[in-house]
Amino acid sequence: MAVEGGAKCVKYLLFFFNFIFWLCGLALIIIGVLAKVPVNTSAIIKGYAGSPLLLIVVGVIIFFIAFFGCCGAWKENQCMIAMFAVFLSFIIIIEIGAAIVGYVLLGTMTDVLNKGFDIMVTEYNETENSRILDTLQQDYKCCGKNSSVDWLNSKFLAPNSVPDSCCKNVTQNCGEGAIRDTSKIYTEGCQPILDKFLKKNFLMIAVTALIIAFVQITGIVLSCILIQAIRNGYEVM
């Protein structure tokens, strides 16, 4: 039997909140994609791409669970509503886990970046380091770890030179003798820029997760109320 009165209001509220869940799932997918660490940085910050990827996975799951919850609320199906509440509980647990992992990684990020850039600069032109670092320097408009001076004693470059990827307008050998020439090259280091970029993304993820978790908990409460109302056998109008 269907519900009436206050329980019927809860039914439509739950349907509305499921629409919000659907939007939340979509938001998680978008935020996860935007916060995803570029593949080119993986050699420097291995393991840090996990949280955004987890957000994308959770977003896809919520996207489909929300549709499941809408059907359960509209048809007043106890089983579907109960499963919806259980699924949401699991999602919240996963989100809490992702938040803890992100918080732990955030505390070690600066050290990881420092070590990563030290290796990349020191071993430039070895393995794929040059390709990755060149891409970083062009994408983030930076040069070296802390500044362009980091290339001063590089055994792979001519004296007082930087890689061509440090140049504002990249041409062959544009970095030769230009280690302090601010008109030709970017002099700001990549490590502070990337560190700021990653921490900003983690903050964005944390705020988004908190807002969505609040909405999810509200949905679980409404689900429990509606299930109880259906069990009590209220008559439909």
TrEMBL record:
GO biological process, one term: regulation of vascular endothelial growth factor signaling pathway
Protein name: Tetraspanin
Topology of this chain in the membrane: Multi-pass membrane protein
Pfam assignment, any one: Tetraspanin
Disulphide bridges: C142-C174
A Gene Ontology term for the protein's cellular component: plasma membrane
Keywords for the protein's UniProt record, in alphabetical order: Disulfide bond, Membrane, Transmembrane, Transmembrane helix
Subcellular location: Membrane
Listed transmembrane segments: 12-33, 53-74, 81-106, 202-227
Highest taxon of the lineage: Eukaryota
Primary location: membrane
InterPro entries to which the protein is assigned, alphabetical: Tetraspanin/Peripherin, Tetraspanin_animals, Tetraspanin_CS, Tetraspanin_EC2_sf
Family to which the UniProt record says this protein belongs: Belongs to the tetraspanin (TM4SF) family.
